[in-house]
Amino acid sequence: MDCVTANVIHQEEVQGGYQVLFLDAPAIAPHVQPGQFVHVRVPHMEESVLRRPFSVYRADGPVLQILYKGVGKGTRTMTYLRPGDSLGLIGPLGRGWPRLTEGRFPILVAGGYGMAALYLLARSMPMQGIAFFGGKSAPDILCVNEFEALGWEVQISTQDGSRGTRGIVTHCIDAWWQAADLKGRQVEAYACGPNAMLQAVAERAMARDWVAWVSVDRNMGCGVGACLTCVLKTRTPDGGWRWQRSCKEGPVFECRDICWEDE
Amino acid sequence: MDCVTANVIHQEEVQGGYQVLFLDAPAIAPHVQPGQFVHVRVPHMEESVLRRPFSVYRADGPVLQILYKGVGKGTRTMTYLRPGDSLGLIGPLGRGWPRLTEGRFPILVAGGYGMAALYLLARSMPMQGIAFFGGKSAPDILCVNEFEALGWEVQISTQDGSRGTRGIVTHCIDAWWQAADLKGRQVEAYACGPNAMLQAVAERAMARDWVAWVSVDRNMGCGVGACLTCVLKTRTPDGGWRWQRSCKEGPVFECRDICWEDE
Amino acid sequence: MKNPVMVASGTFGYGPEYAELVDLSQLGALVVKGIAWEPTRGNENPRTAETASGLLNAIGLPNPGAEGFVREYMPFLRQHDVPVIVNIWGRTVEEYVRVAEYFEGIEGVAALEVNVSCPNIKEGSAVFGTDLDLFRRVLDAVRSATALTLIPKLAPNVAAIADFAKAAEASGADALSLINSVPALAVDVETRRPKLANVTGGLTGPAIHPLAVKLVWDAARAVRIPVIGIGGIATPEDALEFLIVGAHAVAVGTASFTEPRTAVRVVEGIDDYLQRHNMASVQALVGTFQCN
Amino acid sequence: MKNPVMVASGTFGYGPEYAELVDLSQLGALVVKGIAWEPTRGNENPRTAETASGLLNAIGLPNPGAEGFVREYMPFLRQHDVPVIVNIWGRTVEEYVRVAEYFEGIEGVAALEVNVSCPNIKEGSAVFGTDLDLFRRVLDAVRSATALTLIPKLAPNVAAIADFAKAAEASGADALSLINSVPALAVDVETRRPKLANVTGGLTGPAIHPLAVKLVWDAARAVRIPVIGIGGIATPEDALEFLIVGAHAVAVGTASFTEPRTAVRVVEGIDDYLQRHNMASVQALVGTFQCN
Ligand SMILES: Cc1cc2nc3c(=O)[nH]c(=O)nc-3n(C[C@H](O)[C@H](O)[C@H](O)COP(=O)(O)OP(=O)(O)OC[C@H]3O[C@@H](n4cnc5c(N)ncnc54)[C@H](O)[C@@H]3O)c2cc1C
Ligand SMILES: Cc1cc2nc3c(=O)[nH]c(=O)nc-3n(C[C@H](O)[C@H](O)[C@H](O)COP(=O)(O)OP(=O)(O)OC[C@H]3O[C@@H](n4cnc5c(N)ncnc54)[C@H](O)[C@@H]3O)c2cc1C
Ligand SMILES: Cc1cc2nc3c(=O)[nH]c(=O)nc-3n(C[C@H](O)[C@H](O)[C@H](O)COP(=O)(O)O)c2cc1C
Ligand SMILES: Cc1cc2nc3c(=O)[nH]c(=O)nc-3n(C[C@H](O)[C@H](O)[C@H](O)COP(=O)(O)O)c2cc1C
Ligand code: FES
Ligand code: FES
């Protein structure tokens, strides 16, 4: 974990308002584990006291990529960043995706920036499984070529049917599950996306004996475990619950650990 | 007076950190009188609740020019403005320079952005006189060619002697005054620059029976006379004093009206 | 009132200053800069300083006196289709009474806002707003002096604003407005002198908005008379927050300096919101805060 | 203390959280997140919301309890060359006494900061900080309970902070720290619900700096014991303002979230300033405010 000033190498729009930001961050990029995030101080936004968290999309040598969309004040300001600008970066932060359990079959489930948050995982996996990508419409489906280039099968669903199957991502998953011949393997799922998507994956995982890891999205303050903003309710062995910090113990949790009834 | 959004046409550095900003302001530019100012809402500076006042350097058709230097938060932020950006503009504001009194000989005295604040006056004068420009060093002497092109004689002084006479501007004025043959004309002086310069001009004006107009620089709030931030002490006929608003009754005052002892 | 959006005292002059830029008839009401019985010059320079998302001011209530104000500005104001609320202040209870009595007879004055909370008067006016007994005393006296609509303006720097709100209601106030600026201080570290000639000043602007919303909520729950929410409004959303927690109207202050047409934009933004949420009037929104 | 710059309670965890990014030995002191006798879970989510130049929080003082804290964190803290100040709180006078007594025996605790001013505890802790009698009662009790250095932390939402400062001094406090966060409220206008689960919260960050400077000035003039200035420090200049108006030390809060090394940069900036102004020590600067 380090706190640095990173120069913007370049920035490009991918599609549907999604941007990829390339940063020169030699003190951070090489240490990133799949599923970890960086905490960004957006420049020209003095009115804001908080940083903004982003999953690391790619880390190649000193270069770190973030894939994001302008949804609010901070992310919209970020779209103006140009080569030569610089920004503050803390990272890598959080506990990323655990390794695939020996003998399990990996599936990835993603919506929105979740596709970016899963890319490094897909790249580092010992075997390729299936990636289920869901979104409202075709422009929300990202990185498909990249995942396919890694040898992953990508199944796409959009709510308006403009790309892939019409419907939500769990329809695809269920259809696949009905037909799947996993040759005795159990599934290990990795999901990042809207909360409803995570919960739907969790339900299936619990019903079908999958291991399922979900990366949660909580508003963050410090990003390092100090402020206790980003907490989420997790189950304790005694049947009770306790807060865990999604920036420190998370953002990835096994779905059984989360008190979904409080989400 | 209007309140508009103006597009940046372009911006260029002149010298010594001074910038000229070209704005498209058709609702304002054609109405500007020499010595008036505009009140600028600097973009990307949400943390600041106040606008920043700038004299109009030139107004040609719909195009308004501001000459400024990055001295603080707002002006430094302005240096990043590029074509396509836009900013808020209220103007024209204040009472500008009065017309030259029939039969008087005009002299201009300027330091810093004062050279810009006097340009439109020089251009509109019925006769050309002498302009005395002072500054710390050569890069602080601006617009000399422009004034000469209008037919004005420009006498320059710099404190380090790097351009023109070494010393402060009043040395030049005094030397000129000693030798001047004004053919019976009285002087009418117009000054804009640091307060000490204005006061030195005022002293001479009062001793030598000049009329002298000075444009004062007060921190401003509203710029339109509502907040009473920008007040300065002025003499009343009964020997007392009253506040006047430099944004409304000013920024130009006859030097005898100002209570210099309180400056 | 045509709409619930006023402009706050001291931030919109006496009317003419912004009239070229803002159509006054689009304002719910115009609250003029504080008026005392005697003309007053106010504080020395500098009178304002910028802070993070805020403005510090100690103007010191310069004003032409009640008669001077009526002579110089009421003819202009009467020509415009906008309710005029006169903000009044004094250094003693007697001064408050005098100016309140005077305005009862003046045509075109819709209401008096009683400023007991300006932090920039040294003679003791500040104390009226933070000492419950003095507060009651001045309001009782002003109430007896005039039949005009009375709107005490509360100070934010108290431990329990509800007590002041209730006291004002008990004294016969017709409405409340809050908050006035928050006592504050900025220092120029190079000279080690205060940034304002008056040393301390009042903080206003977006910086104080969340604390104003809290105080307005506390006050609105404590009384039945309408509350006017003031403090840091720069966007329609800021104003909506006040209405939702129970204010019946709002006033835009410092933001008029940033953007003269803020109040008008707030009016439009509230209209949009009401339409989007299928609400027939502002009344339907007031006090709809869901806090449990 | 090596230098007068501490990190404020609740904004720097218990020490380990920032240790990879900030050299703890460069801090004047580390004030840990508030500790009560019993472990507490704190409030529901959301716990923070951004405002203009500020942060609204209602974390609700989750903590592992006094014994849990000592077991989990003191071994780490004792290994570092930084004075540890434990911020304590309770819901009753007895709870304060219990936790204060407990820490007297704990190695490595330099002082206790007594939080009587957290606006986010519903059971009544807030009242300790704004009711002068309760305030005296809890401080007298804590004073009798421990010989440790005691630093009451004052609430900003009072009419006369000097009264609280004097009361603390009279109760035997060794120093004062102020301010705690300012009670405030933010509303999501689309849902008409509060942005924080706890409804109200405490406002912190640059937005509140000028009001903190005013209160620190008022408090520092009222007492002889040292005052620690807290509130909205993001730059060395912000800290210098506190020192100039009379604080002997400062603490950086919210700004550590923005920039973890803020406190260290403030230390360096103060050093620069002292050198530029030919001052031998911070002492030479404290209270040099020129205000007449
Ligand atoms: C661990 C983690 C990893 C993330 N990775 C990515 C990523 O790789 N790419 C990406 O585009 N985004 C990512 N996000 C979400 C991103 O942090 C938010 O979109 C961002 O903070 C919004 O900031 P803003 O200033 O633009 O929005 P704000 O102006 O703060 O808010 C605008 C809107 O966005 C919502 N919002 C604010 N914060 C969040 C949040 N944390 N999550 C969801 N909505 C929010 C608000 O409720 C509001 O409606 C991640 C979040 C977390 C916690
Ligand atoms: C009527 C009028 C006309 C002006 N015309 C011009 C012009 O044509 N070109 C130009 O460059 N400047 C002009 N100025 C000055 C200009 O307004 C200030 O330089 C500007 O407001 C500083 O803003 P800032 O945010 O950069 O500085 P801040 O961050 O606000 O302050 C930085 C430094 O500048 C000083 N400062 C702040 N405001 C002023 C001020 N009004 N005057 C002088 N110093 C100030 C501060 O004390 C501080 O030291 C004019 C001012 C007035 C009142
Ligand atoms: C420059 C200035 C002058 C003010 N003068 C007065 C005044 O004369 N009387 C008064 O009651 N309030 C006065 N106020 C307070 C405002 O009416 C308002 O209560 C305060 O600014 C908070 O609102 P805001 O944050 O929207 O500015 C003044 C405020 C400012 C900024
Ligand atoms: C997230 C957060 C948690 C806090 N927790 C505590 C606490 O446990 N005890 C306490 O006395 N103050 C607490 N505070 C208040 C700070 O110590 C400090 O007084 C306040 O933040 C003002 O300083 P700042 O503006 O620099 O942040 C907390 C503040 C924040 C932002
Ligand atoms: S964001 Fe501060 S503890 Fe997680
Ligand atoms: S700047 Fe507001 S009155 Fe002049």
Please explain how this structure is put together:
The complex is a heterotetramer, with 2 copies of chain A (263 residues) and 2 copies of chain C (292 residues). Chain A has 263 residues and is α/β, with parallel strands linked by helices. Chain A folds into 2 domains: 4-93, Elongation Factor Tu (Ef-tu), domain 3 (Beta Barrel); 105-262, Rossmann fold, CATH 3.40.50.80. In chain A, 18% of the residues lie in helices and 36% in strands. In chain A, strands 4-3-7-1-2-6-5 form a 7-stranded antiparallel β-sheet. Chain A has a 7-stranded mixed β-sheet with strand order 11-10-9-8-12-13-16, with helices on both faces. Chain A has a two-stranded antiparallel sheet with strand order 14-15. Chain C is an alpha/beta fold and 292 residues long. Chain C has one domain (5-42, 60-185, 202-284): Aldolase class I (TIM Barrel). Helix content of chain C is 35%, strand content 19%. Chain C has helices spanning 16-19, 65-78, 93-104, 125-130, 132-145, 161-170, 209-222, 236-244, 255-258, 262-276, and strands at 5-7, 29-35, 48-51, 54-57, 84-88, 111-115, 150-153, 176-178, 182-185, 187-188, 193-194, 200-204, 227-230, 249-252. In chain C, the strands form 3 sheets. In chain C, strands 7-6-5-2-1-14-13-8 form an 8-stranded parallel β-sheet. In chain C, strands 3-4-12-9 form a 4-stranded antiparallel β-sheet, with no helix packed on it. In chain C, strand 1, helix 1 (16-19) and strand 2 (29-35) form a beta-alpha-beta unit. The two termini of chain C are 32 Å apart.
